[in-house]
Amino acid sequence: LQSVAISADGRFLACGLFSSSVKLWSLPNLVEYASVSGYPSNSIAFAPAGDLLAIGGSTGGGLARGEILLW
Questions:
Q1: How far apart are CA 12 and CA 34, in angstroms?
Q2: What contacts 14, CB < 8 A, 6 or more positions away?
């Protein structure tokens, strides 16, 4: 586990994994809602409205250091 974020409304948990994937889980039952792979993430954060997840890149994979994927 490399990074974690919880949406402001408490409905989703996002986890950035060392395996270069990000998983989105619905709360409170922890059912996997969605995932994206190929993006090593130094950090992740939800937009205040909860409609976007920002994934901050690191070297290697689909993002270069300093790049951000909006999902």
A1: 10
A2: 4, 5, 6, 7, 22, 23, 24, 25, 44, 46, 53
pLDDT block averages, 10 residues each, the chain of length 71: 92 90 93 88 89 79 70 82
Look at the chain and count its residues: 71
Structure tokens at 60: 């290697």
Measured in whole angstroms, the distance separating CA 16 from the mean position of its chain's CA atoms is 5
Torsion of CA 55, 70, 12, 17, to 10 degrees: -30
Tell me if 54 sits within 8 A of 41, measured CB to CB.
Answer: no
pTM for the full model? 0.82
In the numeric block, which tokens belong to residue 42? 């130094």
